[in-house]
Amino acid sequence: MNENKIPDTHGLRVGVKGGGCSGLSYSLGFDAENKPGDTIIEFKLPNEKEVRELVNLTLKNGVFSFDKKSIAEKIIKNCTGLSYYSIQKTLITAIKRSLFATSEIEKKLTGKIDTNIWKELVEDEKQSLNK
């Protein structure tokens, strides 16, 4: 929020009230104070352990594994700061691209995820979020 000069102490306030074309009117704003009746929802980004758990759950009971486990570990560490959605999206895209990059015979024999593809996707995702 600092990019828009909104202090970190402020939260997003979403409001709904009667009025407008559909019968409801919505408001968005930033507020530093909690008011009685507020429902507070906090979103936290996953830490390294939670990223690893997400990757394991995504690959659970599947035929896919990483071609280079040491690089996959580095990518998992690099995923901190991304949302669960972004991590899973990049991993699933890496699986798809890895499948398309292999020959028909290899597809039948192995489900290796090309860690270079995943690494590139994670780096692209981080760059796009920092713009």
Write out key terms for the chains shown.
Helicase, Ruva Protein, domain 3, two-stranded parallel ribbon, 5 helices, 17% strand, elongated
Describe the structure in your own words.
It is built from five helices and four strands, in the order E-E-H-E-H-H-H-E-H. It is of the alpha+beta class and 131 residues long. Strands 1-2 form a two-stranded antiparallel ribbon. It has a two-stranded parallel ribbon with strand order 3-4.
Question: What's the CATH first level of the largest domain?
Answer: Mainly Alpha
Strand order across the largest sheet: 1-2
Please state the CA-atom Rg, rounded to the nearest Å. Answer: 21 Å
State which percent range the strand residues make up: 15-25%
CATH architecture of the largest domain: Orthogonal Bundle
Q: Note the total helix count.
A: 5
Distance between the termini: 13 Å
What's the β-strand tally? 4
The low-confidence runs, each spanning 5 or more residues with pLDDT under 50, are none
Structural class: alpha+beta
Main sheet characteristics: 2 strands, antiparallel
In the CATH hierarchy, the third-tier topology of the largest domain is known as Helicase, Ruva Protein, domain 3
The topology string of helices and strands comes to EEHEHHHEH
Helix content: 40-55%
**pLDDT averaged residue by residue:** 86
**Coarse morphology:** elongated
For the record, the count of structural domains works out to 2
